[in-house]
Amino acid sequence: FRAAFSPTIPPFPLRFRPFMFSGIVAAVGRIEHIEPLADGIRLSVDTPGLDLSDVILGDSIAHSGVCLTVVAIDGQQLSDDDFIDIWDQTKDLVALVDAKMEEQGKPKMSFFEVLTAMAIWKFADTPVDVAIVEVGMGGLWDATNVLNADAAIIGPVDMDHMQWLGDTVEQIATEKAGIIKPNCTAIIGPQPHEEAVMPILAEAAERNHAMLVRDGYEMTASDRMAAVGGQVATLTTPNGTYEGVPIAKFGEHQAHNALAALAASEVVIPVNGPLDGDLVAEALSSVKIPGRIE
Q1: Class of residue 63 by CB neighbours under 10 A (exposed 0-12, middle 13-18, buried 19+)
Q2: How do 151-154 and 185-188 pair as beta strands?
Q3: DSSP codes joined into one string, the chain
Q4: Distance between CA atoms of 288 and 21, rounded to whole angstroms?
Q5: Pick the residue with more confidence: 8 or 279?
């Protein structure tokens, strides 16, 4: 980690394709929609899930109140033994980086940076095919930004963590645009401050030769109808139209979350044209979103 500051540490090759998410409004649901979609295509090693923004309090082996972050492989959260094993594999590298930082009078790795490094290490070691990564805060300076994602999803940008990201939507959009990487596909959710935000996101996409897929333009959610346990909607993406898709969640925002997840899945799943409609329906009708206490 922080390899640019520590040339003694060789680069760690990634063997998986990352998704990245940033945004606050209707944030819950994007990861949960995308995981069953990727899993439904039956990748050789099924879909991992990573949500580093929801931290669950737990006890470490020393009962020091250390937090365990939500890291899952194929839908299964890491066990305490797995967590300790990853730490044992990475702690010497963390110590090397910390020593280098101390020599340069810079801060040591933060708690979140270490947890992010551990998650990336585990994903690469498994190895997984696709990693689903949610930004902790912002994007430009977030620890997860060491990944070059094939698909970068930016949800609605609004006043979020203003003490760190800035007190205008323009400043916050600039931070979130930091996850748009060279040659990726940037999937942009509905923007409540479109006139202020979209020029910033579009400029970041142009600078990085990234493809823009915008909700309401290159992709749409339409013909929504209430249904038992959720809703049905027609989802249109750059690859095709999926009619009457069952979405196992209520609310217009969840239809747009499902749309973003579907567009991102089309980017990283190696198929030509639209995905299998039956698999998409099966995946989005089985979405589950645990509450924080769960």
Answers
A1: exposed
A2: parallel
A3: --GGG-TTSPP----SEEEEEE-STT-TTHHHHHHHHHHHTT-SS---EEEEEEEEE---TT-S-PEEEEEEETTEEPPHHHHHHHHHHHHHHHHHHHHHHHHTT-PPPPHHHHHHHHHHHHHHHTT-SEEEEE-SSSSTTSGGGGS--SEEEE----S-SHHHH-SSHHHHHHHHGGG--TT-EEEE---TTHHHHHHHHHHHHHHTTPEEEEBTTTBEEEEEEEETTEEEEEEEETTEEEEEEEESS-SHHHHHHHHHHHHHHHHHS--SSSPPHHHHHHHHTT-----S--
A4: 18
A5: 279
State pLDDT tens for residues 163-222: 999 999 999 999 999 999 999 999 999 999 999 999 999 999 999 999 999 999 999 999
What's the pTM? 0.81
Q: Which amino acid is at 238?
A: P
In tens, the pLDDT along 145-174 reads 888 889 999 999 999 888 999 999 999 999
Can you read off the two tokens belonging to residue 40?
Answer: 């439904």
